[in-house]
Every structure is written in C-alpha cells, then in structure tokens.
Design goal:
alpha/beta, binds zinc ion, 17% strand, 398 residues, 16 strands, 42% helix
C-alpha cells in the first residue's frame, strides 16, 4: 500500500512524502512517462541519476504488447524493466477513448481495435484491474471514461456517471495490495467536477486522480475546474493531476494542491529538439545554437548540461544522431524534476508564492495559439501518434 505523509500545507500548496513499497517519494512530484515500460531513450540508471523516484507505464499498451501475462511471468513490471523505484500504471481508459480505435461503448465496458494489429479487444473495469494487477505496479488506476473537451453537459454527465459506476466495480474487483487510485471526471462543468470528486473521495481509496483536464480546453477554464475538483478531495490522500506537465502548468497545479503529475510533454518535446530553459522553451536546431560553446542552460545540473555544449547538442540534432534524443530527454526531465524539488523547498520554507511568481515572471510559455495549432495537427495525424516523431502536445496522456 502507499501513504502520503504531509509535511506542509493541506489546502493550497502541499509538500509531503509518498511512501511506497519501492521508495519514499518527495511531493509534489513529476512522474516521467514510460508508456511501453521504458521512458523513451533512457535507462533506469539514468532516471535514478536525474532524481526520478516514480515512473508511469501504460496498461493499455502493455496488455497489447508484450501482454500482461508475459510481464507477470517475467516477475512483474519492476523486474521486467529493471526499475527499482515506484511504478504507476494508467488503466487504459484514456487510450481507448482517444486513440480512435473505439468500436463499441456500453455500460459494461469498451470494445476497441488494437492499434498494433487491428485485433478486437475489450476492456471492462474488471479486466483493467486484472491486467494492471498482473503488470504489478505500486499504484494502479481505475478504468474511467474521459469525455472530450467539446462534450456538452449531457455527454459529460453520462461519462462521469459511468466513470463512477466503473470505479465501484474496480474497487470490488481489486484483489492485490497495489494501491488503487480513483479518477474523477466532470468534463468542463464545475458542478459536475465537484460532484465527481465528492463521489470518488467517498470511496476512501488511497489516492484520487483528476482526469479530463488539459484535453484541449482554454487554460483560463482549466484552473477553476481544477479548483472545483480538488476542493472535495480528502486532505490526507495524494491528488494526481493526469496528463499535465508543462513547467508553467506544474506551478498552477501545485498552487491548487496537486501532489502528483505526469505528462509525455518533456520527453516528446525533447525528441523534437524543444528544450526547457528558465526563460522558456527553445529549439536546439535553431542556427543561433550552432556556435554556442556553453551549456544550453548554465543553471542546469543535468548530465547533459554538465558534460556537453549547446553547439554539440545542435550538431547531434542536425545529424539526427541517437544520442540527441537521450541527452535532450535527460535535460527536459531533470528540468521538471528540479522544478518540483524547488517548489517543495519553497512550500516547506513557507514561501511558495515568491518562487511561483519569480518562475512565472521569467518563464515564457509557448502561446496558446501555437498549442492549438499543434493540437489540430495532432488530431489530423492521430494514426501517427505512436511514432517518435509525432507532433507534440501539452497535457497529453499517452
Ligand atoms: Zn540540463
């Protein structure tokens, strides 16, 4: 089982320690995403080196390949992927509803086509539990229905009610000592969000996740909806905001009492040459880096900035050398992990707002227009979703 020991804050910014069977994890925490039981291009040793304590994997992808039974036979996911830290698996709900293979949705579950071989697959709350238990992560997620940002009230309400019925079935079907987190939904409606969070809170699960945010809605809408979701949640359980992980969004999430985050953004951006700096994202392939014989970010303590110059990184990207993806991923992940470490230190010092204001004053986020353009591009090329070169998206769950 897992437990959150809070050290500062209850409402608003919180700092604590998440105690898991595979290590104690300081919170707030950013969890790198290892969709297919690997954080793309990085080894577990490298993940430890940049301070990652918990990694997310995806039950949807792993049940299709290599199969949950295969992972169980190999001794469980920790052993299979050689990772001694904590693990969380996402249930597959988001993938079923977002990858375009959905064939039939009924109250019992969802039938979909595998994106790998087109075979028909079925996920129910019970199957999602069985699959995740076989995979064997420390934290497993309830099977939910994530309504799209454009869902009207009726559709959002139906998806939320189904998510609640499925959460109860997940709880009833859950057999191992992995920690089952519930997921609250509610679409873009604050009252549905509050109701959903209250429902999930009442199940007294060891953690509560907030799903269905940062799925394409305007940021001005995201934060009030997050507040509506967080308010009914128990103070003594970890809160996990799913699929959110841009540097500026982490500040807004922590400010509103979120403890855990995950997102493919840092690694996917990295593979496209977009790197975080304290002033905002830069593209390393830009000609201005060709002669920069200094680290990309001189304040950064990551292995990449310690050992290599921006000019060298630029060169690797221009040549499409494999090392480019690894060095860029190390840097972006370390940037977010350090950002969380600093927010935690600021919370413990009673000075979160000073840190938040200083960070946001300096960090220039990619503007919303760029992000919408990226999202539109992504929707048109959804089938290319799994390629390393797929367009990047903020707030995306893989
Ligand atoms: Zn760095």
């Amino acid at each position: 089982m897992i437990e959150l020991v809070l050290e500062a804050g209850d409402r608003g910014p919180r700092a604590g320690t998440l105690i898991t069977p595979h290590g104690c994890i300081p919170t707030p925490v950013f969890m790198p995403v290892g969709t297919q039981a690997t954080v793309k291009s990085l080894s577990p040793r490298e993940l430890h080196e940049i301070g990652a304590g918990i990694v997310l994997a995806n039950a949807y992808h792993l049940m299709l390949r290599p199969g949950a039974e295969r992972i169980a036979a190999a001794g469980g996911l920790h052993r299979f992927m050689g990772w001694s830290g904590a693990l969380l698996t996402d249930s597959g709900g988001f993938q079923v509803f977002s990858l375009g293979g959905l064939r039939r949705l009924d109250d019992d579950g969802a039938t979909f086509r595998s994106h790998i071989d087109g075979s028909e697959q079925r996920l129910t709350p019970e199957r999602a539990m069985r699959v995740q238990e076989q995979i064997g992560a420390d934290i497993i997620m309830a099977f939910d229905e994530c309504p799209p940002a454009e869902a009207g009230r009726e559709a959002a309400s139906e998806a939320t009610a189904r998510t609640h019925r499925w959460a109860e079935r997940c709880l009833a079907a859950h057999e191992t000592d992995s920690a089952l987190f519930g997921i609250c939904q509610g679409g873009m409606f604050a009252d549905l969000r509050r109701e959903s969070a209250a429902f999930i809170a009442a199940l007294r699960l060891p953690g509560c996740a907030i799903g269905g945010l940062s799925v394409g809605e305007r940021k001005a809408l995201t934060w009030p909806l997050l507040e509506a979701s967080v308010e009914p949640l128990p103070v003594d359980r970890p809160r996990y905001l799913m699929g959110v992980g841009s540097p500026e969004d982490l500040v807004e999430g922590v400010r509103r009492g979120v403890d855990m985050f995950d997102c493919v953004l840092p690694t996917r951006l990295a593979r496209n040459g977009a790197l975080f700096t304290p002033a905002g994202r830069v593209n390393i392939t830009n000609a201005r880096f060709a002669r920069l014989d200094r680290p990309l970010d001189e304040e950064c303590d990551c292995p990449t900035c310690t050992d290599f110059t921006a000019a060298y990184l630029h060169h690797l990207f221009r040549c499409e050398e494999l090392l480019a993806y690894r060095l860029a991923s190390l840097h972006n992940l370390r940037f977010l992990i350090r950002h969380c470490e600093r927010m935690r230190a600021a919370i413990l010092a009673g000075d979160f707002e000073s840190y938040a204001e200083a960070f946001l004053a300096r960090y220039q986020p990619a503007n919303e227009q760029t992000r919408y353009a990226q999202r539109a591009l992504y929707r048109r090329t959804r089938d290319a979703h799994h390629s390393a070169a797929a367009p990047t998206l903020p707030g995306e769950r893989t």
